[in-house]
Amino acid sequence: MTLFKQVTIIGFGLIGSSVARALRENGVCENIVACDASPDCLAKVEKLKLADKCVSDAAKAVNGSELVILATPVGTYGDIGKAIAASLEFGAIVTDVGSVKGCVLKALKAVLPEHVHLIPGHPVAGTEQSGPEAGFASLFAGRWAILTPPQDADPTAVEKLKRMWEAFGSKVEIMTPEHHDLVLAITSHIPHLIAYNIVGTAHDLEGVTDSEVIKFSAGGFRDFTRIAASDPTMWRDVFLNNKEAVLEMLGRFSEDLTALQRAIRWGDGDTLFDLFSHTRQVRKQIIEAGQDEEAPDFGRPHDSPSKN
Amino acid sequence: MTLFKQVTIIGFGLIGSSVARALRENGVCENIVACDASPDCLAKVEKLKLADKCVSDAAKAVNGSELVILATPVGTYGDIGKAIAASLEFGAIVTDVGSVKGCVLKALKAVLPEHVHLIPGHPVAGTEQSGPEAGFASLFAGRWAILTPPQDADPTAVEKLKRMWEAFGSKVEIMTPEHHDLVLAITSHIPHLIAYNIVGTAHDLEGVTDSEVIKFSAGGFRDFTRIAASDPTMWRDVFLNNKEAVLEMLGRFSEDLTALQRAIRWGDGDTLFDLFSHTRQVRKQIIEAGQDEEAPDFGRPHDSPSKN
């Protein structure tokens, strides 16, 4: 199921390196060109044999590629777009894997030539780890990949990209960049922001030591530290580039939290119970949709589980 | 390592039934008496053979027991204490597994006779599941159990209870109820509250459908739905009974979140980056302390992981 002769991936972190592995494992292309601004990263890619060629200069890396995938923090797209613009092949597809989409079109459309197909994308998948060693081919299996093609996008190019994600085991959804940014603000950006925030709050307490926070983290806190361990540069860029939707969702979150705070202050147990009963249902639906583990505690291992 | 002849557990949900299994598996007592207000639950306990005797009347259930463990929502303690007070053996230990400790002493000390040893406790362990089927013996292994004995507590009784938790594989820490309630407010209660809250916020959006929230939950949201699937009655009682510490911590959380909101609004990337870099360190410490999985994504299985 070879869709492309040569694919260039710019940025070889968790996602870029997982895409490379998935391309190979599923025979989606013949050749992979790796590009990364960090010589250290490129050396690892070479050692792990994740690509057929490693090139540090982005303009040279896109030479001869039918598909170019940006997998760097979204704040870098403008500069990378300028650097590669003159070297892109006629009719090449340029896509990305960034967590924000509105800004991508804005940053790239302005600098890329008319003769390439710009089709932004976002696989809703990941782990808290970073770097080329952290990637794996099955990262996208069972997850959704969102494409946000411009209205005048070439249907054949969109279809080809769709088939690439499907070859990785993903389901594909097409939507506008604006809607993507709103949906992801609540399903991804705000969860990360409040996770980062509570870890910060816990660190700054005078009455509770850091060591106590760590010892007793199994009470719920530790769950939040996982996504708060995600890549700082990537996430800074997400918040700077999806400001409007994040502020809108954050306003709603805070409003709802204030209502809960008031219910606690006034001892309104019914309000608490009603919310707490409903949320269990949402978990059930996520498991039914195959988007999380049915096993308790995310399937975390517990020593010598009892069989009785 | 038999510490008790007979132990009564009142409340046979996830924690009560896990305690019963752990008592047996580690030979900590000779007989277990199960008590639960729900006939349906007691029938399950009988079917699963989790106890030597099932008794629906709490006063009768404590007859002849050296240790009585309350494992019901903390809001029920006052009534249960009144019901069992006259039937408790001379010198019996009364403990609990509740997530709030200040209110326990208040509710139980007022109604229990002088001749019993009241030593509140809290194993910082659990899953999002409920009921007697959900428990397992190793739930407490590697986790911390906190005891909050009154100042005049009998050292021998405290030591015996400590040895019970150690037999389950727990590490034991002793602290005041006030300090417990402050520490757990940040490591457990606030995490649950904001998890419940964001699931509620996501449900109430007009611009984003419930089905979209579920489909794209792997972006981070799904992590929150796990703890937001915890038992509603138990958690209602936690918030109603740890009002002061929860409101204090919630105030700090909201203050910090407002600062982050301001950084996003004004494009202050450095503030975001600094916080996001620090939080990674906290995750590392939690893993080093053996309080969470080192494997990425909590060790969630991914289909056919690549080996390259």
Please, could you describe this protein's structure?
- The structure is a homodimer of 308-residue chains.
- Chain A is α/β, with parallel strands linked by helices.
- Chain A has 2 domains: 4-175, 3-Layer(aba) Sandwich (Rossmann fold); 179-299, 6-phosphogluconate dehydrogenase C-terminal fold (Orthogonal Bundle), CATH 1.10.3660.
- Chain A contains 12 helices and 9 strands.
- In chain A, the strands form 2 sheets. A 6-stranded parallel β-sheet of chain A has the order 3-2-1-4-5-6.
- In chain A, strand 8, helix 6 (155-167) and strand 9 form a beta-alpha-beta unit.
- Chain A is globular, with a radius of gyration of 21 Å.
- The model of chain A is unreliable at 304-308 (pLDDT under 50).
- Chains A and B meet through helix 1, helix 7, helix 8, helix 9 and helix 10 of A and helix 1, helix 7, helix 8, helix 9 and helix 10 of B.
- What is the CATH topology assignment of the largest domain in chain A? Rossmann fold
Spatial strand arrangement across the major sheet of chain A: 3-2-1-4-5-6
Most extensive chain-chain interface: A-B, 125 and 125 residues
Report the major sheet of chain A.
6 strands, parallel
Oligomer: homodimer
Alpha carbon gap, first and last residue of chain A: 49 Å
Shape of chain A: globular
Task: Give the radius of gyration of chain A.
Answer: 21 Å
In the CATH classification, which architecture of the largest domain in chain A applies? 3-Layer(aba) Sandwich
CATH homologous superfamily label of the largest domain in chain A:
NAD(P)-binding Rossmann-like Domain
Order of helices and strands of chain A: EHEHEHEHEHEEEHEHHHHHH
Helix/strand class of chain A: alpha/beta
Question: Could you say how many structural domains of chain A there are in total?
Answer: 2
Total number of helices of chain A: 12
Mean pLDDT of chain A: 95
